[in-house]
Design brief:
Length: 248
């Protein structure tokens, strides 16, 4: 009588099936963040003050990266912001960044965005934004220091522009692990100068964690505090999730 044969190894799973599973998992994670991490966003605007001073928001972004050449990387962006005090969506944006690597210490980034931004009174302003940016950076072992600079135009309908603003965002990132799933923590602070207000009127401070989920998929989860001297709401606390996928 023949002895029974037992499997000693698990059946292999193709790489394409694994990639598809990770993509579906990331998309499901974003949906859960929108629907459950931020339950206040489902509240009706009629139950909130007309001009809230403080707001809690959920920012959800999907970036799809494609390497076009040796020194050119294109980043396709889709972002949705949900609010607990004003009508939703509070803000949406889609567009593309064209990242040209001048050398290991400098990246030039022209961009073009289409956006919709809702005021505290409920009016949705729709427009376009051409952007020219440059980012010097310095890598030292586990430390990554960068300073993103952006000159942003803004024009559109419903009283949107034309105007421009300048944004400066220094960032410090520290890599915690270098294993199969690299993980790092980061903090950045962004000051914005608005031509329409002739001053530095907005500040955003953020801290979070970045983790590689799979070879081509990464996620940022962070908290952000925004303070605005002129716009409303004047103070915005934000729970944010950014999923980054690389096609090639």
């Amino acid at each position: 009588m023949k002895e029974p044969v037992f499997l000693t190894t698990a059946p292999s799973i193709s790489k394409s099936a694994t990639d598809l599973w990770n993509i579906r998992t990331c998309l499901l994670f974003m949906c859960l963040c929108i629907g459950f991490l931020f339950p206040e966003a489902r509240a009706q605007a009629s139950q909130s003050p007309a001009n809230p001073d403080t707001d809690f928001q959920s920012w959800n972004e999907l970036d799809i990266k494609t390497r076009i050449g040796h020194s050119l990387d294109v980043n396709w962006i889709a972002r949705l912001r949900l609010s607990s005090t004003i009508s939703n969506p509070a803000d949406y944006l889609f567009g593309a960044d064209w990242n040209f690597s001048v050398n290991r210490h400098l990246i030039l980034t022209p961009s073009w965005y289409y956006f919709g931004s809702r005021s505290s009174s409920g009016v949705m302003k729709i427009g376009q934004s051409p952007v020219l940016g440059f980012t010097p950076m310095l890598l030292r072992r586990r430390w990554n220091l960068s300073d993103r600079n952006r000159f942003c135009g803004r024009f559109g309908s419903n009283g949107t522009g034309p105007s421009w603003d300048y944004r400066n965002r220094p960032q410090v990132e520290y890599q915690l692990t270098e294993a199969e799933h690299p993980t790092s923590i980061f903090v950045w602070n962004e000051e914005t100068y608005y031509s329409s207000y002739r001053g530095w009127t907005r500040n955003r401070l953020s801290a979070g964690i970045r983790r590689t989920l799979q070879k081509r998929i990464m996620a940022d989860v962070y908290f952000q505090r925004e303070d605005d001297q002129i716009g409303t709401p004047k103070h915005i606390n934000t729970a944010a999730v950014l999923i980054e996928m690389r096609l090639r």
